[in-house]
Amino acid sequence: MSARASTFGRAFPGFSLRPAPALWVFLVGMPLLGLAALNTGNNALYLLVSLLLGAFAASGVLSRHSLRTLRVELLPAGEIFAGTPVRLRLKVENRSAWLPASGVLCRLVGMPGRTLVPVVPPRGERTTTLTTMFGRRGLHRLPAVQVEVRLPLGFFVKTVRWPQELEVLVYPRRVARGLARWLSLSDREEHRRRGGRERGGDVDQLREFRTGDDRRDIHWKQTARQQRLIVVERRERRRPSRYLVLDRQLPRRDDALLAERFEGLVCEIASAALADLQRGYQVGLVVGSRVTVPAAGPAQSRRVLGQLALVKAVGPGEDPLPSLIGGEDVYRLVEGRP
Amino acid sequence: MSDLERQRWLAGMALLAAIPLPITGIATWPFVLPYMLVAGWLLTRPRAVSPLPPWVENLLAPCVLVVVAAAGGLRFGVLRPVAQLAVLVAMIRLPGCASSGRIRKTLIITSIIGMAGVASSTHPSLLAYLLVVLALGVLGVGRVTLLELRKPDQELSRRAAWPTGRLVVGTVALTMLIAAPLFALLPRLRSPFAGSAIGGGGTSGFRNDVTLHDIGTIKVSQQVALTVRFPGADGPPREWLRLEGATLNHYRAGGWVEGRHVERLPLPSGGQAVSLWPVADARGLQRAEITVERPGGNLFLPPGSVSLEPPLAVEVSRTPMGVLRIRRDTPVPFSYAVSFDPLRLRTRPPEASDLEVPGHVRERITPLVEDVVVGSPNSLAAALAIERHLQTEYTYSLHTMASLREDPVVWFLFRGRQGHCEFFASAMAMMLRVAGIPARVQVGFSGGEQQGDGSFVVRDSRAHAWVLAWVAGQWRVFDPTPPEGQPSAAQDGWRTRLPWSLDDLDALWNRWVLTFTLFDQAEILRTVATWAGANIQLISLVLGAAVGLAGLVVGLWRWRPSRRPGPGSGRSRGSDPVVRALEKVLDQARRRGLDVRPSLSPQVFGALAAAAFPAAREPLAWLMVAHERRRYAGGPPPARRDLRRHLALALRAMTAHPLRRAP
């Protein structure tokens, strides 16, 4: 049996079939009709039996042909958040030269999402969308697409699975945002830019030009008025410093409850970051020892959400936060007191 | 699908299923018309109709039984009352058929009606009808499937909600292609017509015997059977119009046969004239030259034949009744000549068997014969009265459906009252015998089409049966068939000259579908076997070439550089054997449940697979090294034998051992 199944599997990779209700009607009716033909010798009944058997075989051949010539490709569309319905694009291509594929039902394997493609013309393709939902964040391979064909006569539901090679990054679930814990690191930052200053800050004082000063800082009006080179000394502009900090060290590593709560933390941070990024604010992220400097815009959004999508909890001491960071504004899990 | 659309589909199917019923007569118009009116009414209603109240249905149920019983009940067999019952029940149950509880029952009863119609159909249009039903079935199944499978919020356009025409046509065409050989191969255990001794033969043409139990329609074949010339004659003598093929005097089981013990006397061949009947005076004899165009087992003689110039190299034998037989597989055409005296019939004198009548037949027809021959002064007058009675009181028809449960002659005389020439001849022979007049049935050809050179063409359509009766001390010919059923020279017309006509189509249908039997299957098998035996070298050559060609194609397919990706393989296999081997391992690992992502490098995959399948560690390591050496170092490919061995080891180890998952 296994050898046979193996042979069948090799001959029709990914192919399976299961009976449809019409098959049972056929299996009950056909022997009765055949018996009637055999008993009466009525060739009209023999003709009917032949046509029914022929239709049975033809239906099998044509549906198999349809299934064999179909190609299915799933394409991601936009950002994907866990727990949020997402529309995926589905491209169905029919490589048959003459037979249109009718009634092609596509389902995602192991995930919600199905769509009916009424007809795919010969040597043509149809693109449709189907709505599904990813349960968890992370890097996911797109689910396989199970293609079902029943027509022309629907004795069997014939299916073939098309594994998808593409991987998609599923961002953390969006949750109702509470009060976000922002951490400001402006007075702790070490700026390693040349000169230690930035142009364009508030004016601190005017003083006489000294060797080494930037000539662009010369205040020309005062220089003309005082007849000596006066430069503007500016106070350094405060760098935007809004960080969300996640400590991914769990008190215990293999604890399902802690892991679940860690997921909640990640979702909370992601939701807070996303909300501010969508309002145009700059957002930075510290996850363990990895620091993402604050910035705004879609690129930063992808950067932050992507990092949060892939973050994994670690055991104690495995990936500590930088030593400068600490306090109440850090998202971290601690053992609850009994 | 809405209730209204479901109602329309079911009503349409009900109408379609009932189409053959009135045509075949299995359910007559008084039954079918109300049923069709109800179905048509449902088809045109703008909304779904509610079923009749239960008390009304309960009231109508016994009425249905009474009506069917009053229409004859089981007197005409089982099929007719079943069809009538189904039609009446369906008529009552059709309103409300769209409700979920009634769909299945409506389908079942409609199927019964359809099968009754099909089972009683004999016309070639049955095939077209079945194909139309099949096409509509594909449309209906497609429509229902598409509507059921769509998402609740998915709107299908008018066109998208139906299967495509190409799918329907393709299905019907492929069905026909598959069904044709299936029809020929399905086992036959019974003759198509239960009462027929040899399975019936609905196509016109000469037969050695008369089987009256055929049902259906006699088809008129226009194939040329004989050509006849009368050298030296001024014009065609009237008597030549009959060409005797067989004289039958034994009535058995609803048909005429020559008798159980037919002694054959071989006649010398070689072209010399053979005397068939001694004559004292050769004056007045006429000569006919007959060419046989269709193979058969008989030579045909004009009445009063006295000598024969048999065809060259053809063995001819003669039965005691004077019938000339040849081998059925004698090549045609061949010619022979006959001398005959058209004014005097010559055949064996009456025997006891010429008065045999089955007891139950005699019992039924004696009162009729007495009525018909009453007042006839002699046997000739009695015979003429019977002939006239049959010609005037009965109707000629090629459409017959004799009951299988009673004697066909009795059925013809008292119930059917219509039939073809064999019924008329048989009935007259029986009536003559009951009246004490020896009678035989003769079958052969009558009439022909005169050609420009004076010869006559005799087609199958001129096959005929008539009666020889011993009256006034001699045999005389009587033809009780009404004039419209007697083939004559007046029948010539453009239609008979067409090489192919609807009648030929009917004939083919009748021969190869309606009357297709186990004997035909055996005959086809024998023909094929004979042909194969005679052409064994050619067959071997063709088969060898086919096998070679197939091997070449398979080989090319197998070894082509890249394969078209199929389900389950997302990439094309390369031509490098090491890469192919690695991809096979990848596929196997994926099938065994290992999460193999496209982003994995071969080395990482190797480590993962080795961890998951420890037994495969060594061959996998060998494969990885070979792959790296080949892919990145430009090394030569490993020996194929080694590669195959390690690949087999790896695959076997991965198949045999369970996947070890990480804790």
Descriptive notes:
The complex is a heterodimer of chains A (338) and B (663). Chain A has 338 residues and is α+β, with helices and mostly antiparallel strands. Chain A has helices spanning 2-11, 21-40, 43-69, 220-226, 256-278, 298-310, and strands at residues 15-19, 70-75, 80-81, 86-94, 101-108, 114-120, 124-132, 138-141, 145-149, 156-162, 167-171, 203-208, 230-234, 243-246, 283-287, 290-295, 330-331. Chain A has a five-stranded antiparallel β-sheet with strand order 1-10-9-5-6. A four-stranded mixed β-sheet of chain A has the order 16-15-14-17, covered by helices on one side. The two termini of chain A are 58 Å apart. Helices cover 45% and strands 14% of the residues of chain B. In chain B, a hairpin with a 2-residue loop joins strand 5 (250-252) and strand 6. Chain B is flat, with a radius of gyration of 37 Å. At the A-B interface, helix 2, helix 3, strand 5, strand 6 and strand 10 of A face helix 6, helix 7 and helix 8 of B.
